[in-house]
């Protein structure tokens, strides 16, 4: 039997690290961000990017220039429309890939799969992934520590985490939806101990 986790938490809470720990060496993490990168480099999307945004959006290697796209999608005038257009090409591919790989994992009896999907709850009406999860896990880190990590690891300005999260479901609501809480205020070793305890509790070790 394959046990499926859905990962929840705030920005810079270490969701990806927690997802890897929950999956373990024999498990599988399905990262929507990683799959979106793959989708961006498929021939059909490359041609759409070239046709919509012009040759300046394509790098010397023939693949979309991520820096140029980021400027178009997040910074330029009319960026909201550009972002929605790009997402309309990429998100269906990501959803299809997650469903296909989850099906393959179940067929292969992979013990644990973790869905690392940003806005898992917010966009559930579009993708329906929550119903595929056996348990939702919230990765808990206080806001000050997440702000510190975002500044240190991502180069973000003070207050950027708070600003971005204002457009998302409040963290207390995400926490309330979770079946289990993982504290990640400490070291990676501390997180692994918390994960091991949860897996033992669920008889998944």
* CATH fold descriptor of the largest domain: Rossmann fold
CATH architecture of the largest domain: 3-Layer(aba) Sandwich
Gyration radius (Cα, Å) is 18 Å
Name the CATH class of the largest domain.
Alpha Beta
Strand arrangement in the largest pleated sheet: 2-3-1-4-5
Q: What's this model, at a glance?
A:
This protein has ten helices and five strands; from the N terminus they run βαβααααβαβαααβα. By secondary structure, it is an alpha/beta fold.
What is the strand and helix layout of this fold?
Elements: E1 3-9, H1 15-23, E2 28-31, H2 32-40, H3 43-53, H4 66-75, H5 79-107, E3 112-116, H6 124-127, E4 135-140, H7 143-154, H8 160-165, H9 171-177, E5 180-183, H10 188-201
Parallel strand pairs: 1-3, 1-4, 2-3, 4-5
Helix pairs in contact: 1-10, 2-5, 4-5
Describe this structure in words.
- The two termini are 13 Å apart.
- This protein has helices at 15-23, 32-40, 43-53, 66-75, 79-107, 124-127, 143-154, 160-165, 171-177, 188-201, and strands spanning 3-9, 28-31, 112-116, 135-140, 180-183.
- The protein has 2 domains: 1-27 and 111-205, P-loop containing nucleotide triphosphate hydrolases (Rossmann fold, 3-Layer(aba) Sandwich); 33-109, no CATH class.
- It is globular.
- The protein has a 5-stranded parallel β-sheet, with helices on both faces.
- The model has no long low-confidence stretch (mean pLDDT 92).
- With 205 residues, it is of the alpha/beta class.
